[in-house]
Design goal:
Elements: H1 2-30, E1 44-48, E2 53-57, H2 95-105, E3 117-122, H3 133-151, E4 154-158, H4 172-182, E5 188-192, E6 196-198, E7 215-219, H5 221-225, E8 233-241, H6 244-254, H7 263-273, H8 284-294, H9 296-299, E9 303-306, E10 313-314, H10 322-335, H11 337-340, H12 349-353, H13 355-358, E11 368-370, H14 387-406, E12 411-413, E13 422-424
Parallel strand pairs: 3-4, 3-5, 7-9, 10-11
Antiparallel strand pairs: 1-2, 5-8, 6-11, 7-8, 12-13
Helix pairs in contact: 3-14
């Protein structure tokens, strides 16, 4: 009898509790507030947009990274708003709330959202003038695909102008903006110029370091704030959080671009602000420095100037070191069998083992190498370099990165200067 009473009590009370939980969930999900917390016996997922923190009830069916790509419920979302536009000319409003509601309706994308990165890159619409430019673009793109596959990131390659007047370096902003709308499941959008190479395929971006920031760019604070130099940072590689802050920031940043009637005036303002800027036109990089100098109170607290590793490294400072770095890594593997053990490419735990040997050594692989000034597609390189110096350096750096990938397939380039030949790796190499 006691057992029957207990069973009856459970059967009555559990539906009541479950119904209450669902009702409270819906209430809090669609109420226009900044933060909400949901207490339940299931899973609560928290993610931070850099401005707001959201706790979203994900339910018991979420596991790992198993996305439900076919589930799209009939409830309306921002995609059903006829006034929504992907173009740069119309502001996006209330994006954090719209994104939160979309995630609520697509709960399989919630788990792991705080670590989800979408890489965006691209090139011009037509063929390269440089005879080997298209081949180089392919190799640079392959490098990015390799890195994304290894780390579980998605990648987008865009060779179109999403605004006809936002050409060259300005084209990245419309691309990033459209990507945020197309991929609300991505927490971070990473832009990388076509001529940037991942040169440490094991390195995992330290996203936790940026938990209170919305924009990450490689640079040197002293060069920005003391010298007011337009080279105090480089806008060829950056991370930007998928958030309302990002849309607002890009609206202001792009307001200096060639699609605006004040484009020439902005060129004058930027040259006046950064005395070392020689080109007359307004550019995205100097524009970014300008916003840090002139509107620091508005934007600066959410912008992280990364100088702790090569988020974007100048190729001239790197290319002469890659052989020595290779020797150093091989030397460590000779003394530590666990680091040279064969393993499946998807098993990434081995990269963490390296940290104990790399900490404080100063010779770890640079994360990214940027061939700024080489103009791999047009071939109109900076006068400081020769065509052959750029091409030779690209080949060496690309093969340096490629060797890290090829190792999982049992091969390695015969030399860093030979892109066509590989040789099989002996078992237990380099014992």
């Amino acid at each position: 009898m006691p057992n029957q009473t207990g069973s009856s009590f459970s059967s009555n009370i559990i539906p009541i509790i479950a119904g209450t939980i669902v009702a409270l969930s819906l209430f809090w999900a669609f109420r226009p507030i900044i933060t909400f917390t949901f207490t339940s016996p299931n899973t609560t997922t928290t993610f931070n947009t850099g401005v707001n923190t959201y706790n979203i009830f994900s339910g018991p069916t979420i596991s790992g990274h198993e996305f439900n790509h076919t589930h799209d419920p009939p409830e309306p979302t921002f995609y059903d708003d006829p006034d929504l536009t992907y173009t740069i000319n119309k502001p996006i409003k209330n994006w954090d709330e719209k994104r939160r509601e979309w995630l609520w309706l697509h709960p399989s994308f919630i788990s792991g959202i705080e670590k989800r990165v979408m890489l965006v890159t691209g090139s011009q619409t037509g063929p390269c003038q440089n005879p080997v430019g298209d081949h180089l673009l392919l190799r640079f793109f392959k490098n990015k695909v390799d890195y994304c596959r290894i780390h579980g990131y998605d990648i987008i390659y865009n060779n179109l102008l999403f605004h006809p007047k936002m050409f060259t370096y300005w084209a990245k902003i419309p691309s990033v903006r459209a990507t945020m709308l197309a991929h609300p499941e991505a927490e971070w959008i990473m832009w990388a110029d076509a001529d940037a190479v991942f040169t440490d395929m094991d390195f995992k971006i330290p996203l936790q370091r940026y938990k209170n920031h919305n924009f990450v760019v490689h640079g040197w604070p002293d060069l920005i704030y003391k010298n007011k130099s337009w080279t105090g940072l480089n806008a060829g590689v950056f991370l930007i959080r998928n958030s309302q802050w990002a849309f607002d920031f890009m609206d202001v940043w792009s307001g200096m671009g060639p699609q605006t009637p004040n484009y020439e005036k902005w060129g004058e303002i930027l040259r006046e602000t950064c005395k070392d800027k020689t080109r007359p036109e307004s550019d995205d990089q100097t524009g970014l420095v300008y916003l840090l100098l002139k509107e620091k109170e508005k934007w600066g607290d959410k912008i992280y100037i990364e100088d702790g590793y090569y988020l974007e490294g100048y190729w001239k400072n790197i290319v002469g070191k890659v052989e020595r770095i290779t020797e150093k890594y091989n030397g460590v593997m000779k003394s530590e069998r666990g680091l040279r053990r064969r393993h499946a490419e998807k098993v990434r735990g081995y990269s963490a083992l390296w940290e104990a040997y790399l900490e404080g050594e100063g010779w770890r692989r640079p994360f990214m190498t940027h061939f700024r000034g080489c103009q791999l597609c047009s071939g109109t390189h900076n006068g400081l370099y020769t065509r052959h110096s750029c091409l030779d350096a690209m080949e060496k750096v690309l093969n340096f990165a490629d060797n890290q990938v090829l190792r999982s397939y049992g091969f390695v380039h015969t030399s860093l200067g030979d892109s066509e030949s590989v040789m099989p790796l002996p078992f237990d190499y380099p014992a």
